[in-house]
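[SOLVED] Need 3D model of a two-part complex

Original post:
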Amino acid sequence: MKRDRLAQLRSFWGEFRQVRFGMVGVALLVVFLVLVFFERPLLTYRDVNSRWRDMMYWTDSPRYALPVWVNWFTSKDYAKSAVITAQNVQEAEGVRRTTMEFPYEFKAGRPPSDVLLQLALTGQVSLTMDIVRPDGRSVTYQKNTSSSGSQVLRISVDQNLRERVFQMVASAEDPAVASSRNPKQINSVGVLFGKAQPGVLSNPQILNGTYTIKLDVTCVGATAKLDSAKVIVAGGVSGILGTDAQKRDLWSGLVAGTKWALIIGLLTSVIAVVVGVIYGVASGYFGGWVDSLMNRVYEIFVSIPLLPILIVLSAVFKPSIWIMITMMCVFFWVGPVKTVRSIALQLKENAYIEAAHGLGASHRRILFKHMIPQLVPYAFASMALAVPGAITYEASISLIGLGDATVVTWGQILFDAYSSGAVLQGIWWWIVPPGLAIALMGMTFAFIGFAMDTILNPKLKTR
Amino acid sequence: MYWKYAIRRVIYAFIMFAVIVFIFSAIFNSVADRVMRAQIQETVNGESRAWLRQGQQRSQDQFLVWKAQRHDELTRMYHLDEPLMGRIFWRSIDTITFRLGQSTIIRSQQGSQNVMTIVTERIPRTLLLFGTVTVIDIVLGVWLGMRKARKAGGLMDKTTSVGTMIVYGMPAWWLGMLFIMFFAFTMPLFPSGAMHSTPPPEGIGYVLDLVYHMVLPVLTLVFLGFWGTAYITRNIVLGTMQEDFIMSARARGISERRVLFGHTLRASAPPIVTFSVLSLLGAFFGAIIYEGIFSWPGMGSLYWQSVQQNDIPVLMGNLSMTTGLYIAGLAFLDLIYGFLDPRVKVGGKA
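Solution:
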């Protein structure tokens, strides 16, 4: 019996391999499985699963950065994000003074979106930051700070240094323009990385070269010290898929969402189809009033529009992802029932079923040993075809903001994108990849399911 | 004969609606109770403020007695004093008779807070959008399906089948977002949403303006929908072509074109209509929130609104009405099928 089944499976696989788009589906499925099983090494941000919604986790990234590969298609490339560590660290004895330098090699065709100096300090500290440009001009920023414990200090060019940057280039700019411009409204980062010449305030031309951020820290109090310092260049491009309005790395989100899409799709379709097949076979096999009753129940479920009821259930009960899968199973099982029932009606007329009856086999034995095994290929095809539906429904529920906020799903990324107005602003790299992933996953299972379908219904291949 | 069948089918649809409404009432009983109690409390508070403002010369005791009485009265009126089964029963009766109660925040265009008014003013808009798409989908789908069936296994058939599979799991609302981004913002050909310009033009301009606003949402749904219809049509037509009467028609020397469009299509019409409309019905109710992307003020957008504003009565009322429409759609389909295929009437069960 077991060997029979194996041979059956092998011959099915042999036929399946002939269907080209079926194999494309399998290949795509393998890609998705690789994304799931090699999630950890593939993630650029390791803790994305637990800290996707944690603003602190993403502070060092740029906002709305384009994907890195955009640079391949543009003549003026965007600056990449970078973290620069201190060099030339010199600590003077006695006065407890530390100096360090952070050289930034600026080679891109467009300025980064911001440059940040991030310091961890303890106690009373006085610090001076100098940004020295390749042409010798520099911006200086001084600050005295004190705190009882340790604190993190962030000095941003865009937020803290606008007026100083303005002062730095004002002498080079046309005096009429310089006096008319409000220093608070300049593109500070663009100006900082721009050539000092007339027009720098309105239309800065980039100045490539090595920019050095010099830091001079003097610790005043006895307990005061500089714990760490780094310079973060928030680039115009970041990561494989860029970042969103909350500075999150979209590639990491997408990879983390893959496993949830697969779990939602497969779990829902497998449970629902197993229940549906057993239900349909039992309904056809028992016949009579059992069949009538089961038909009525089936018709009730069929008459409920799926997405609306799922939306209302989610809105009222605020379910976790697992409850949501259960809810979907409750309504998905009706899919294969009608076909399975009609197949069962034919199967039960076969002589071997009667023979099994005559030999005293129980209903359960006949159902599970003689009838259901014959429906396995059909069941697999239905499972494959039910997967995209489950994924889309979860995404739809997430899209109106009812998703499980403890996990990252593609639908929720799209919800964030939509509610932050990414469509209006044309942030395509936030909208295209998650939806494309949903569509690709759906396509994968459609390829596999349709391929099985053509094998099961050979007369539909040609006429 | 057909009338008997039709009446039976319609009665059956009503029973089905009643049963489902009862199930909904049972599932959502506790939240509906909570909302109802809050609404009663609010009514009583409002009334007592008015009562006090009139400055009636009554004592504090009288006021409290009156307030408690009013509260009890309303509680009894909405059957909230009854046991669980009673509450579920009466709420079902209310829903079936379309007394859907008052909304908490959302208002209709005229400013009414009656849920029934809010939902019904949106039904024609949803029907307009999805009805248009259904018609275009079926025309395009049957046309393509026939072409596919004519040269089944050919290059055209294969490539379009792959097309069917490519769009199989694509969310309509996502494609809508892309189209809006591209056709409304990057290349401003169409409006980004809504049903009319503000203010809407008069006369013939009104219709043209409506059509102009419909183009993009319809285009998106048709782009996703007609592939499935084509695939279903192809399979049904191919199934019919195996029948003996087709072979005999061919043997009689009737041209292939007439065999296809005269004999095959006529015999396949009932299942094609049923299956394609059935799949479209499922697809549309699955894509209903798609309206929200295009700010199309139909029932789907109402789901967005009621979820965002947490307006439970509207959410529930909308669900009941959507379900009612869905069941009506299924019944309507069976009626068409019975009309097209006389065999159904005899069997009685669709």
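Edit: The CA atoms of residues 197 and 228 of chain B lie 33 Å apart.
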